[in-house]
UniProtKB/TrEMBL annotation, chains A, B:
Domain Galactose-1-phosphate uridyl transferase C-terminal, chain residue ranges per copy: 188-278
Active site: 169 (tele-ump-histidine intermediate)
Protein name listed in UniProt: Galactose-1-phosphate uridylyltransferase
UniProt similarity note: Belongs to the galactose-1-phosphate uridylyltransferase type 1 family.
InterPro entries, A to Z: ADP-glucose_phosphorylase, GalP_UDPtransf1, GalP_Utransf_C, GalP_Utransf_N, HIT-like_sf
One Pfam family matching this protein: GalP_UDP_transf
Domain Galactose-1-phosphate uridyl transferase N-terminal: 3-179
Keyword Zinc tagged: yes
E.C. no: 2.7.7.12
Cofactor note: Binds 1 zinc ion per subunit.
Positions contributing to Zn(2+) binding: 42, 45, 116, 167
Cofactor(s) of this protein: Zn(2+)
Record organism: candidate division WOR-1 bacterium RIFCSPHIGHO2_01_FULL_53_15
Keywords: Carbohydrate metabolism, Galactose metabolism, Metal-binding, Nucleotidyltransferase, Transferase, Zinc
Amino acid sequence: MPELRQNPATKEWVIIATERAKRPEEMGLGVANPPANEKERCPFCAGHERSTPNEIFSFRSFGTAPNTPGWWIRVIPNKFAALLPQGSPDRVELEGLFHYMNGVGEHEVLIESPEHTLTIATMPEKQVEEIFLAYRERYIALSQDPRFEMVIIFKNHGLAAGTSLRHPHSQIIAAPITPNHIRHRIEEAMRYFDDHGHCVYCDMIQKEKKLGDRIVAETENFIVLEPFASRSPFETMVIPKSHASTFDAIAPERCKELAYVMRLTLKKIYRSLNNPDYNYVIVSSPSHERSLEYYHWYIMILPRVTAVAGFELGSGIYINTVIPESAAKFLRETPFE
Amino acid sequence: MPELRQNPATKEWVIIATERAKRPEEMGLGVANPPANEKERCPFCAGHERSTPNEIFSFRSFGTAPNTPGWWIRVIPNKFAALLPQGSPDRVELEGLFHYMNGVGEHEVLIESPEHTLTIATMPEKQVEEIFLAYRERYIALSQDPRFEMVIIFKNHGLAAGTSLRHPHSQIIAAPITPNHIRHRIEEAMRYFDDHGHCVYCDMIQKEKKLGDRIVAETENFIVLEPFASRSPFETMVIPKSHASTFDAIAPERCKELAYVMRLTLKKIYRSLNNPDYNYVIVSSPSHERSLEYYHWYIMILPRVTAVAGFELGSGIYINTVIPESAAKFLRETPFE
């Protein structure tokens, strides 16, 4: 069973992932490149459904059976799950100082397409819309489990971003705790609301629209920008203009527009930075803290073009070598179609 | 001039490093491997003193002139400094929301040896002692400048840890702000002190000694351990047993013992994990907040054997695939000499 452990000095939680645990002596070997016959052995490709755990959810053609071809989006439990759904998340104290609990949660993989070599930048827009509709379905389902406090939807693209599997996929983790990292963000947003009477993210959107130089793209309901204090080159925020604190507040019919802006943004990044490794995460409030007037959901995209080094790890201050306004101008001017 | 910018929503600071700024179109090229004639072109090797800015500090043979050979430790300004010493750190507000200030600070490089291919694991112990004595000198000098709030001493070893220069070196940054990341750590330590009347790190040392299974090594005045909630495989803490909140509290004569434990630890990591990329950072209180009874300095070593992925970036919860007790046992059993 995986375990959640709390750092007694900082109160931050860590997952000790025993299901994917490696022997210490395996760690010096580095990350393997994909094998030559990558595609034949890929568990996520159409026709290989039997090499994954049974599907939890899918979009598939009428009349096709689960765990057979015919799907275009497929959600399965992660075979090497960081958290497992059995049990209850009770805390245990050791020596009056160290706290831990069972690693209770969900860890799912969302296979974004039956096609091995596609990526959001190169997929049809309709497929991207279906990915976001599927995210929304899983977010709603997992946030209803009273044991889970956070539902985190994220994507790792490429080795530097933490995946060696090329087949396009995202991951969804439901965790039984709200980490300090998120608590602090919420507290800061709350303080701003108390001082000004508005959501800080709503105010940021207004000011960024007025200034204009950090905006990459804008549609009726979304804005894409390089944040004023971007932590690394091309950190990008895709943010809904209307206020809502949880991702599932998005109406299903608006997923089409979100898919359009996400594909546009990722395509510009793909083209201008030569298909860089990247992560994206849907930032949303804890799942039981709904309709917060001071918090605002958004998608953070982080191209992994520079390494996080000792200074960042020790101080939490990031050094960014690209001026956000230059990054925004560069992406604005990158052709989309 | 570099610029410090504050994220209006999280209050975290970021350095926009204009001195090392790249054009956006340069970012898609990836990190270059060292050239074949690496050593001849290395600015840090003995004999190449003229290819660096003038030295700030050195340990060198009697009678040799600054910026000529004869040194065994040399501290120089970073040629591509993230912060610059001129000016004053006044804050500016933009549109009532965005705060920034001049990037005032110091950014130094400490060249750890005249020899290009050594690393702490393979250096003579005496040389490691001199490195720590030099850290201490620079820490004291920089923490006396009233403009600087944090002095951060760190090392990047290898590409994944953020350096492409093989010549052994560390860096020292003096920053004009205390980041939220550090504030939160201090607040948690303060809360523990208020609840229990002891420093949480002092208590942790006592409990870890009692339990024993996460200890890698111990000397009279230092303990080396894999923290209970290690964030990644082989995260290692080298911590002084006696209470002190700032690094410069170390007596010069105790640097010999610290050098012994650091070299022992890094040599065990070097041997057992096949010379992995790693970072270390000296964690210390803000430089004007001295003699805190609730905070405790230590050295954090982070081998970079796994990638930080979307989940960690979005949630702040790390997934660690090696059980800290197994990592400690493995390092304990790795021969040192």
